[in-house]
Amino acid sequence: MPSLFRFLFVCAVLVGIVYGAMFALVIYVEPVDREITVRVPTEKLNR
Questions:
Q1: How many Å apart are CA 41 and CA 37, to the nearest integer?
Q2: 3-state SS assignment for residue 47
Q3: Cα 4 to the chain's mean position, in Å?
Q4: Tens of pLDDT along 3-43?
């Protein structure tokens, strides 16, 4: 039974690290707005 508790503890720590990394990305990273242009072939427009 102690190995089960150790396994669950390791899983909980890994989930906490992933959650913390995602939270840090949300807080500290700002997306950059920029204009894009996409060329659409005329074959796809005139069917």
A1: 13
A2: coil
A3: 29
A4: 999 999 999 999 999 999 999 999 999 989 999 999 988 87
DSSP per residue over 13-36, as a string?
HHHHHHHHHHHHHHHH--PPP---
Q: How far is C-alpha 34 from the geometric centre of its chain's CA atoms? A: 21
- For residue 44, the one-letter residue type is K
C-alpha radius of gyration, the chain, whole number:
23
CA–CA separation, 16 and 10 (whole Å): 10
What are the Cα distances from residue 31, in Å, to 2, 26, 28, 34?
A: 45, 10, 10, 10
